[in-house]
Task: structure prediction
Amino acid sequence: MHLTGLELRRIAMPLVTPFRTSFGSQTARDILLVGWCHDGADEPTGWGECVAMSEPLYSSEFVDGVATVIERFLAPALAAAGDISAADVDRVLGPFKGHHMAKAALEMAALDAELRAQNRTLHQLLGGTRDHVPSGVSVGIFDNLDDLLTSVQGYVDDGYARIKLKIEPGWDIEPVRRVRDLIGDDMGLQVDANTAYRRTDIDHLCRLDEFGLLLIEQPMPVDDLLSHAALAAASTTPVCLDESIESLTQASDAIDVGATSVINIKPGRVGGYLTARRIHDLCRERGIAVWCGGMLETGIGRAANCALAALDGFTLPGDISASRRFWARDIVRDPIDVVDGLVAVPTAPGLGYDLDHDVLAEVTTERRMFTLHPGQ
Ligand code: OSB
Ligand code: MG
Result:
């Protein structure tokens, strides 16, 4: 494929209910979609969904920055590279430091276009072994315990395989105790702090040990592997990294220093689905469990995440909830649904979604097409 054009489409999707984490509260999602046009086509034949948020609060990338780096540097480099395959995108973009979410969106669009042309699925390319994957749900921070418990009960009734609670200082031990009492000892429960604690909080976090959690996700700052290792040594709850893992090397180093015994793999954060698979392979060799995280994706990203989560090292339920957990209307005709705690891995060619062009047109806030020239 020779990249000859790109569509950058920005959409605004209202959330069915506000989602609050230790880094902020969201009522809508501002998402950049990337359309891949190759060999002179004037319409995209593949789409990537960028997971960056409007503000750099989860990671350093943000939507405006992603659009700029793609337009100024990444897309021209891909166009100049001539005939490439999706597997070359990561290498061609290698000279540009960072910007993993921007790179991942481009690689994802290339994969979608290439696989559709070959009539193959992402599931086949990645080598998934299952046709259904267990579905977990991420539950935000609430103003009071009653509202939290009502929300969790709703998700239990929906059949989710496990619950993840967002925590922060002042919203941790009591919410976890009450939710554990509500759901019983047999249901999987885990927490995610999004970097809200410090090394001085280790004794406090050890109080979570009595609740039999599957894991505690990213309690400490992004660059602080040693505080995660100190917590792992002091606590019986497995420590899991999310924000700290942006590459294969970082995954390997975090395992070596004892900072993590479980990894949340988010393809956008690590620069794409192909690197995500390499991290999965490494973790499998090293006996580290992995699961697939989420970034409030539309049906495009959810479909691709299901394909990744079908690899056999994904031994824990992912944050791959039903589309309706976040959206009243998705931009795809075949939104992901949860049945008996499972979601079906898509079987259609490419990433496996079917765009709903009417909904997409309604949620679009900006659409820019540009033509790329090899010598640009
Ligand atoms: O830390 O896993 C996270 C959402 C946005 C940003 C970061 C995170 C999350 C979630 C929700 O926890 C995952 C999802 O269901 O999409
Ligand atoms: Mg997380």
Notes: The domain at 124-344 is CATH 3.20.20.120 (TIM Barrel). The two ends are 17 Å apart (CA to CA). The first strand starts at residue 3 and ends at 21.
